[in-house]
Design a protein that fits this description.
Blueprint: H1 2-14, H2 21-35, H3 38-46, H4 53-73, H5 90-97
Helix pairs in contact: 2-3, 2-4
C-alpha cells in the first residue's frame, strides 16, 4: 500500500494524464487493472459520476479502453524503481513497461483534458 501511494503521482506523468478529475479517473482505471485494489476499482467506477457529459465522451470512448489495455498488458508499475530512472526518457520507459502511448487528445482551452 505504501508503494502504491509513492507511485500514484508518478503515474500521472508516466500515463501523461493531468491531475484534474478526468485524469484522476483514468489513472484509477489503470491502477484498478494493475492492482485489483478495491479503492482503485471504486474510484474508477464512481469518479465518472462527477464528470460532465463533455468529459465523459472521451473517457468512455478512448481513455478507459486505453487505460485498461495498458494496465492489463504492462509490467507491474509498483515494482519499478523510478527513483533510479529520473534521467530516462518517458517514451522509452513506457515501451519498456509495455504501456501503450497515451491517446493523442487536444490540449486547448475547454478541452476535456484541461484542468
Amino acid at each position: 500500500m505504501q508503494r502504491y501511494r509513492e507511485v500514484h503521482d508518478l503515474l500521472h506523468t508516466l500515463l501523461h494524464m493531468p491531475t484534474n478529475m478526468l485524469g484522476e479517473v483514468v489513472v484509477k482505471w489503470f491502477e484498478a487493472a494493475q492492482t485489483g485494489l478495491p479503492m482503485c476499482m471504486l474510484g474508477a467506477a464512481l469518479g465518472p459520476l462527477r464528470l460532465s457529459p463533455r468529459r465523459l465522451q472521451p473517457l468512455v470512448s478512448t481513455l478507459v479502453p486505453w487505460a485498461l489495455r495498458s494496465g492489463c498488458n504492462a509490467r507491474c508499475v509498483l515494482s519499478v524503481y523510478y527513483e533510479q530512472r529520473w534521467g530516462q526518457n518517458l517514451e522509452e520507459l513506457r515501451e519498456e513497461l509495455g504501456i501503450e502511448p497515451p491517446p493523442a487528445l487536444r490540449h486547448r482551452r475547454g478541452d476535456p483534458l484541461q484542468h
